[in-house]
Design a protein that fits this description.
Blueprint: E1 2-7, H1 14-23, E2 27-32, E3 44-47, H2 67-77, E4 81-85, H3 87-94, E5 101-103, E6 111-119, E7 135-142, E8 146-148, H4 151-160, E9 163-168, E10 184-188, E11 194-197, H5 214-219
Parallel strand pairs: 1-2, 1-3, 3-4, 4-11
Antiparallel strand pairs: 5-8, 6-7, 6-9, 9-10, 10-11
Amino acid sequence: MKVTVLQFPGTNCEYDTKYAFEKLGADVEIIWHEETTLPENTDLVVAPGGFSYGDYLRSGALAKFAPIMNAVKEYAANGGKVLGICNGFQILAESGLLPGALKRNDNLHFISKHHHLKVVNNDNVFLQELNIGDVVNIPVAHHDGNYFIDEDGLKELEKNGQILLQYCNKNGENQILNGSVEQIAGVCNKEKNVFGLMPHPERAMELLLGCDDGVKMLQGFLK
């Protein structure tokens, strides 16, 4: 499997992401934001975490204008799989590839810790290795992770099974982390080939580092 990882000025999780997918057996290539085409035979594009363009204006607001994003949009429109993690999720939302928006955490503080997530929908390639209701423990690290969508948009997400993950406690009961609508931690597009989440599964690949719950999350893409 060929995974292409995007790199913007300020990205800082590209090598973590590369390591995670290589650990699962994928061939991974990192490409610079000024490229205008994706590598041939790309099976998955990942927009990783970090602070693209220093989060100037808004998180992800400038990255959406990067030359490579035209190729990513075309790739997604043709059914290609795209994953956005943290800042990558913000970039995909700003680019219109995912519904909703990410705004400042309701407590106005940067949040960095492990936090439990509940699987809401698994009828997609991303979470197919997990069951609905499964609880995983995944690191979060964000200042602008407060997911917002209006009431009509939320109804569409629920209707189409686009809500992927919710913040919860260890027992699977919804728990407020950053003020996200319905404690949403991750969503996908209606076609279920573009995915975004604020937590970092690529940082949860080894028990030695505290948790390997990210393995099953990312493994779905290799099926």
